[in-house]
Amino acid sequence: MTDVSDDWQRRVDAVWQDGGLDDDARVDPIDELAGELGREHPIALFECAGARDSAGRELEAEPLYRAALEAGLDPVRRTRAVIQLASTIRNLGKIDEALDLLGDEYVATRGGEMADEAAAFYALALASSGDAMRAASIALGALAPHLTRYTRSVTGYAAELVNPRGE
User: More exposed terminus of the chain, fewer Cβ within 10 Å: N or C?
Assistant: First the structure.
């Protein structure tokens, strides 16, 4: 149920990459393409949610993300949907739920393909909740492996932000 043709995915990607479309104008072509899969298809729901989210229509996006997750997505799209849903609900003021979703995703994706993305949005949610030190620790921890120098130092300092005595 989570498979789509390469042609369909290329056409969706082309809509997302079309610089001539503003975010609001992207919704209708994405909806048309989603209709080819059927409105209950998890990937169709996910793409429709993302289009609305990008257009600033978070209230419309939220239930579509939830439906996509309930319908079942492949692992990468599932992580993307969790991140995007959590970001949406954070913007809607549901910070505690966003923290729960992102905290779980942060742990689940460690060492995986979407680990840095989960960490980035978890850090944003932590900052929104007022936990700036933990947010900085998560963000620096995600950044450290990408540094050309000081990886060990930054990793240590990131841990120290939330555990100053090394307990």
Answer: C
- The answer to whether residue 1 scores a pLDDT higher than 60 is no
Share of residues in the chain with pLDDT > 70 (%)? 97
Q: How far is CA 92 from the centre of its chain?
A: 15
Q: Are 82 and 108 in contact (CB under 8 A)?
A: no
C-alpha radius of gyration, the chain, whole number: 18
134: buried, middle or exposed (CB in 10 Å: 19+, 13-18, 0-12)?
Answer: middle
Confirm if 64 and 48 have CB atoms less than 8 A apart: yes
Reported as a single tens digit per residue, the pLDDT across 83-107 is 999 999 999 999 999 999 999 999 9
What average pLDDT does range 41-58 have in this prediction? 97
Question: Based on the number of CB atoms within 10 Å of its own CB, is 154 exposed (0-12), middle (13-18) or buried (19 or more)?
Answer: middle
CA pair distance 83, 105, nearest whole angstrom? 8
